[in-house]
Amino acid sequence: MKVLSLKLKEDIFNEVEKIVQEIQISRNAYINRALELYNKLNQRKSLKKQLEKESKAVKDISLSILSEFEKLEDELS
After folding, report:
1. C-alpha angle with apex 38: 33 to 43, nearest 5 degrees?
2. What is the per-residue pLDDT across 20-29, written as a single tens digit (0 to 9) for each?
């Protein structure tokens, strides 16, 4: 486990202290869970952005192929 020193805004620190007392876990465990959730959120955002980009690329290619098939169909008609 890595050791980390950080500075928190006083209002955030006070809110964390209140919550950890209510749910009875250590501050360290709470911050670890919060960071884990935040990491997952950012990973999802990154995957969503990548999927949107790749979907657009596939869409453009699919429309191009469809256009080619329509031209062939028109020629055969």
Report:
1. 125
2. 999 999 999 9
